[in-house]
């Protein structure tokens, strides 16, 4: 079997106004996915998803940088193709972070999908088999809103069966803690609460925050400060019993090297469809495991990216929980169906060959790409770009 072509399809689902959510990364207007299909001369098609922005840049990189080097290769040689894409093309021509790695990641996932389909087994079986029989899920996320509304959402997710949930913080410490207190009061002490600042705090503010998080028994504090500040992460990790989590904006095992070897976090969170695909995420997890860290991949996208994360989680000993996006995204819910749905707080292991997902014509027709970024300006309240300054200016 040989690779005959690689193609990208961009789909976009506008978010109805009442379902839009706001956090430190901005206000979400739409959900966009760049799906990549690797096509073989035997008619098998592998599906992946590339995370990054803008989607047209992902498509250009796949079309012009990656696809020409892949035609004629055996799609089973995933490790060799990864090296060919990364070392041969992306690292020196596009860069080892950003859209180039998103493009590479989607192609990597599609190759694993081909292999699973060809051999008639789910991807996790190709990764050493299962080490968890089902995967605990957490509800992601409760967004910036008034404390009573946040508490009502939390109660709703717990009633659905979730035993863990995430709160977006980063507005300011007092407002964030008011929401956290209301949620803890509403769900009691048996539910694990994670908080995610999406890089909004400075190290000093994060230090103050993390000490106050301890009293609410917060399980982890995610992206408290900008991801490049490994020194800041080290300080925070050493200062508190609350676990520090980061990684959704990081790429490759080389990008995670300092964070892991300096033990500057407790939980690593690479996104499978951004950090280097299934092939690379496994290596990052093993590195983290050797340093006593846990693995909880970022998984906030379409059905392909969530399912890729599910296969990795199923076969990775360091994985202990899975992010499940509970906000509006038909490219997750309609495309993934029961595969992406948590029941009683758990996801079942997929049993179909490959990923177990097909990009149907109905989905392609229902969600055409109309352009534009999904998000408004990111907030960094601690640095002066505050919540109040962000009101919908970039919507027009
Ligand atoms: Mg996050």
Spell out the blueprint of helices and strands.
Elements: E1 3-14, E2 22-23, E3 26-27, E4 30-40, E5 45-50, H1 55-70, H2 78-94, H3 99-119, H4 123-126, E6 134-142, H5 147-159, E7 164-168, H6 173-187, E8 192-196, H7 203-213, E9 218-222, H8 230-239, E10 243-246, H9 252-261, E11 267-268, H10 272-275, H11 277-290, E12 294-295, H12 303-314, E13 322-325, H13 330-336, E14 346-348, H14 361-366
Parallel strand pairs: 6-7, 6-13, 7-8, 8-9, 9-10, 10-11, 11-12
Antiparallel strand pairs: 1-4, 2-3, 4-5, 6-14
Helix pairs in contact: 1-2, 1-3, 2-3, 5-6, 7-8, 9-11, 12-13
This protein binds magnesium ion (MG).
Can you characterise this structure?
This protein has helices at residues 55-70, 78-94, 99-119, 123-126, 147-159, 173-187, 203-213, 230-239, 252-261, 272-275, 277-290, 303-314, 330-336, 361-366; strands spanning 3-14, 22-23, 26-27, 30-40, 45-50, 134-142, 164-168, 192-196, 218-222, 243-246, 267-268, 294-295, 322-325, 346-348. Residues 392-396 have low confidence and may be disordered. It has 396 residues and is of the alpha/beta class. The protein is globular and about 60 Å long. Strands 6, 7, 8, 9, 10, 11, 12, 13 and 14 form a nine-stranded mixed sheet that branches. The protein has a three-stranded antiparallel sheet with strand order 1-4-5, sandwiched between helices. The protein has a two-stranded antiparallel ribbon with strand order 2-3. Helix 1 (55-70) packs across helix 2. Strand 2 (22-23) and strand 3 (26-27) form a beta hairpin. It contains 14 helices and 14 strands. 51% of the residues are buried. The chain starts with a strand and ends in a 30-residue tail after the last helix. The chain is 40% helix and 18% strand. It binds magnesium ion. Magnesium ion binds at residues 196, 198, 222-223, 248.
């Amino acid at each position: 079997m040989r690779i005959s072509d690689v193609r990208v399809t961009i789909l976009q689902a506008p978010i109805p106004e009442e379902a839009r959510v706001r956090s430190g990364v901005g206000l979400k207007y739409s959900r966009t996915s760049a799906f990549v299909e690797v096509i073989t001369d035997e008619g098998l098609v592998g599906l992946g998803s590339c995370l990054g922005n803008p989607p047209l840049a992902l498509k250009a990189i796949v079309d012009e940088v990656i696809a020409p080097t892949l035609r004629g290769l055996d799609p089973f040689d995933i490790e060799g193709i990864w090296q060919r894409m990364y070392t041969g093309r992306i690292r020196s021509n596009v860069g080892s972070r950003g859209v180039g790695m998103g493009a590479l990641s989607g192609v990597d996932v599609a190759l694993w999908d081909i292999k699973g389909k060809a051999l008639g087994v789910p991807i996790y079986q190709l990764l050493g088999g299962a080490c968890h029989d089902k995967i605990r899920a957490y509800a992601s996320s409760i967004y910036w809103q008034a404390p009573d509304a946040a508490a009502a959402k939390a109660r709703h997710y717990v009633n659905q069966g979730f035993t863990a949930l995430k709160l977006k913080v980063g507005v300011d410490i007092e407002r964030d803690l008011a929401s956290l207190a209301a949620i803890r009061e509403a769900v009691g002490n048996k539910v694990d609460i994670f908080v995610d600042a999406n890089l909004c705090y400075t190290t000093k503010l994060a230090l103050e925050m993390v000490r106050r998080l301890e009293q609410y028994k917060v399980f982890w504090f995610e992206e408290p400060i900008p991801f490049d500040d490994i020194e800041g992460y080290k300080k925070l990790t050493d200062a508190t019993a609350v676990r520090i989590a980061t990684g959704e904006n990081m790429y490759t095992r080389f990008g995670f090297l300092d964070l892991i070897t300096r033990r500057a976090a407790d939980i690593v969170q690479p996104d499978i469809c951004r950090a280097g695909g299934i092939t690379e995420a496994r290596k990052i997890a093993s590195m983290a495991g050797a340093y006593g860290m846990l693995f909880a991949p970022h998984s906030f996208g379409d059905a392909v990216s969530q399912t890729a994360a599910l296969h990795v989680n199923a076969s990775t000993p360091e994985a202990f929980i899975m992010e499940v996006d509970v906000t509006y995204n038909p490219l997750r819910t309609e495309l993934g169906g029961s595969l992406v749905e948590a029941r009683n707080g758990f996801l079942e292991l997929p049993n179909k060959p490959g990923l177990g997902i097909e990009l149907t014509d109905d989905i392609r027709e229902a969600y055409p790409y109309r352009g534009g970024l999904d998000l408004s300006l990111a907030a960094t309240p601690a640095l002066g770009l505050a919540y109040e300054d962000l009101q919908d200016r970039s919507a027009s």
